Amino acid sequence: MGHVEQTVYIEYLGNVDVYLGMGIKIVTGLILGSLVGYDREQKMKNAGIKTNVLICLGATLYTAISMLGHVQGGGIEYDSARIPAQIVSGIGFLGAGAIMKDKGNIIGLTTAATIWVVASIGMTIGYGFPVIATIFTITILSVLKLLGPIYQGFESTKNHKYYHIEVLSHGDIKNLVKEIVFNTTDRIDELHEQIVDKETNKRHIDFYVYMHPKKMRIMGDELRDIVQVDRVHYHQIESKSTTSES
C-alpha cells in the first residue's frame, strides 16, 4: 500500500502538512486559552490560566483528530461531528463544578460560562479556523473586561461611597477575600496583608472599595461567614486617602 500524504485544513492556507497544521492549531490554542485564563486569574477566579489552557487545548486536539480521522477514513463511514458533540455536552459537567451555592447566593456562573466558551474556541481552532477563533477570543475578553464597567457606568453612582475595610483572621484568606470582593465590585484599591502573630498565624488585611452601602453590608456579611475570620470592621471615608475615625 502506497504512502498517502496527510494534510489538514487551515483557513487562508488551505490544506497543509498534518504536522505543520497541528502545530499551528496547538500554538493558537495555547495562546488564546492563556489570554482568557489570565483575565480570570487576575480576578482571582478558580479557573485560571492552566485550567483554561488545558480546556482549549483538549477541545482543539479532540476536534482536530476527529477531522483528521474523517479525511483519512478510506471510504469508511465516519461521523466527524460525533466527538465534538461529546465535547459540548461533556464540558457542561466541568462548568457545573465551578458553580457554587453559598447561603442562597449563586456564584461561579461567569466562570462556568467562560469554561464553555473556551471549549468552543478550541473546537473552532480544531476545525481549522484560528483567525475566527482569535476574533471570538477578543470578543470574549471585551465582554469580560468592559461589560461590567459599562454597566456600572449606567448605574447611578450618587449613593456610592468609599469604604475602608479591615479583616482579622487566623489563616491565609487573602485570595478568598479578593474573590468575594471582585464578585461584588471591580473598584478595589491598596489591599495589604500583615502577619500579626506568626505562632497563631493571625493576619490583618485592609483595603478600600467604592460601592453602594447595601452591597457593602452584603459583602461584609459574606466576609464574616469565612470560617477563619475573627472580625470584620468597615467604615465610610470621604476618599481612599482620608483617614476616618472608627
TrEMBL record:
The keyword Transmembrane helix applies. It is a multi-pass membrane protein. It comes from the Bacteria. One of its GO terms (cellular component) is plasma membrane. Keywords: Cell membrane, Membrane, Transmembrane, Transmembrane helix. It is found in: Cell membrane. Coiled coil: none annotated. Its main location: membrane. It holds the Pfam family MgtC. Belongs to the MgtC/SapB family. This is Uncharacterized protein. It comes from Bacteriovorax stolpii (Bdellovibrio stolpii).
